């Protein structure tokens, strides 16, 4: 595990007519090639003010085509239908047509909205993802889920819309605040738990190097995460089955996010809490050993991620879980571990077990 060979940095997502490549490289020639290959009639880069300031010019120079930059204010609270309408109006002003291309330059908020705008514009045009947050690089830019929130419904409106290409520049992480790095790491840890025990060990052994921006380690963290997400999405593009494993830790995470009005925790922080809960439930059900549970909790703690329940009424959390988008007919289904590197999905768990696990997580 120590002498990992730098990966080639190219992953193909095999989805028949909707296949595409993910390239992880600070050399952006892959982006100019992808844009040239699509031969768009016009290009719109959708981004936010901060990311535009850091990387907008660089991207414009690389794509080698005149582009309109559409700037959306930063933050989850702008991930709304009203922002989509404004964006579509700007696309109209820019005279975009059915052969135009949308490029998302940003974190998951920008990626979800740019993708949704591309899905809606004249019933769907090409789009490319340039994820700039760690979470977007390892998760949201791959797999084709796009959309926005309703005032009381996170990600309630959206479309499956695969990008035509994903271009990841690991060096963009240099400007990302450390709290946002940790939030992305929660999803990286998730891939180890759900799919790959060796990758989990690699993360444990190389976390410090990652934090010191070691290029080979960073490349491997991103590469293996994208590869696992790609393999799962290939097996189940529209979430009829296996794709549910990507929701490991998310049942509790969504309830925690909602109970704290999306203000206390970033998504990854809530996922950290949710993964500890899922490990504890797995342990209470004697599916895994306490050692495995401890390994996960310790790793998340080293990353500075929360592993305790916030001070909220557990009945509120329980109730929110039954109302989750992923619940079917009021039945909460859990993804639980068999060991690190393997999970099972669609499992019903008695309420008292869930509550016992959450109680163990209160201070
Ligand atoms: N579509 C999917 O499959 C999927 C999966 C997971 C999450 N999501 C969505 O993604 C969103 C969260 O994404 P996120 O965590 O990237 O949040 P985000 O997009 O809000 O980005 C986090 C913050 O980092 C800033 N930022 C991004 N890149 C930067 C960089 N390189 N340098 C400096 N600052 C930078 C952003 O401006 C923002 O302030 C949520 O809306 C969530 O629902 C979607
Ligand atoms: Zn997530």
| Total number of helices | 13
Level of helix content?
40-55%
Structural class: alpha/beta
Q: What would the average pLDDT be, to the nearest integer?
A: 95
SSE sequence, one letter per element:
EEHEHEHEHEHEEEHHHHHHHEEH
State the distance separating the first and last CA atoms. Answer: 36 Å
Small molecules bound: nicotinamide-adenine-dinucleotide, zinc ion
Report low-confidence residues grouped into runs of 5 or more.
none
Strand order of the largest sheet: 1-2-9-6-5-3-4
Care to describe what's here?
Helix content is 47%, strand content 17%. It contains 13 helices and eleven strands. Strands 1-2-9-6-5-3-4 form a seven-stranded mixed sheet, sandwiched between helices. Helix 4 links the parallel strand 5 and strand 6. It binds nicotinamide-adenine-dinucleotide (NAD) and zinc ion (ZN). Nicotinamide-adenine-dinucleotide binds next to helix 2, helix 4, helix 5 and helix 6.
């Amino acid at each position: 595990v120590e002498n990992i060979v730098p990966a080639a940095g190219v992953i193909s997502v095999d989805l028949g007519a909707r296949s595409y490549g993910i390239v992880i490289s600070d050399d952006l020639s892959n982006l100019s090639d992808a844009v040239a290959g699509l031969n768009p009639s016009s290009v719109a880069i959708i981004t936010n003010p901060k990311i535009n300031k850091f990387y907008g010019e660089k991207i414009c120079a690389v794509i080698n085509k005149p582009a309109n930059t559409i700037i959306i204010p930063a933050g989850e609270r702008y991930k709304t239908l009203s922002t989509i309408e404004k964006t579509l109006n700007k696309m109209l002003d820019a005279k975009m047509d059915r052969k135009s291309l949308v490029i998302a330059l940003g974190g998951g908020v920008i990626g979800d909205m740019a993708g949704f705008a591309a899905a809606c514009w004249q019933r769907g045009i090409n789009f490319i993802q340039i994820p700039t947050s760690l979470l977007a690089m390892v998760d949201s830019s791959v797999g084709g889920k796009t959309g926005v929130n309703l005032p009381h419904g996170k990600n309630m409106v959206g479309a499956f819309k695969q990008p035509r290409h994903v271009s990841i520049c690991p060096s963009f992480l240099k400007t990302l605040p450390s709290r946002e790095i940790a939030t992305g790491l929660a999803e990286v840890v998730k891939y180890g738990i759900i799919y790959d025990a060796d990758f989990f060990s690699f993360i444990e052994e190389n976390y410090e190097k990652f934090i010191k921006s070691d290029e080979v380690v960073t490349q491997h963290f991103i590469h293996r995460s994208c590869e696992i997400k790609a393999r799962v999405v290939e097996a189940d593009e529209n979430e009829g089955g296996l794709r549910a494993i990507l929701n490991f830790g998310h049942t509790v995470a969504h309830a925690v996010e909602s109970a704290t009005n999306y203000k206390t925790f970033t998504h990854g922080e809530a996922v950290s809490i949710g993964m500890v809960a899922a490990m504890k439930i797995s342990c209470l059900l004697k599916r895994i050993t306490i050692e495995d549970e401890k390994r996960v909790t310790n790793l998340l703690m080293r990353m500075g991620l929360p592993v305790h329940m916030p001070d909220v009424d557990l009945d509120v959390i329980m109730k929110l879980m039954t109302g989750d988008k992923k619940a079917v007919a009021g039945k909460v289904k859990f993804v639980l571990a068999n060991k690190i590197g393997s999970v099972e999905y669609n499992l019903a768990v008695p309420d008292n077990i869930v509550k016992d696990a959450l109680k163990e997580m209160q201070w």
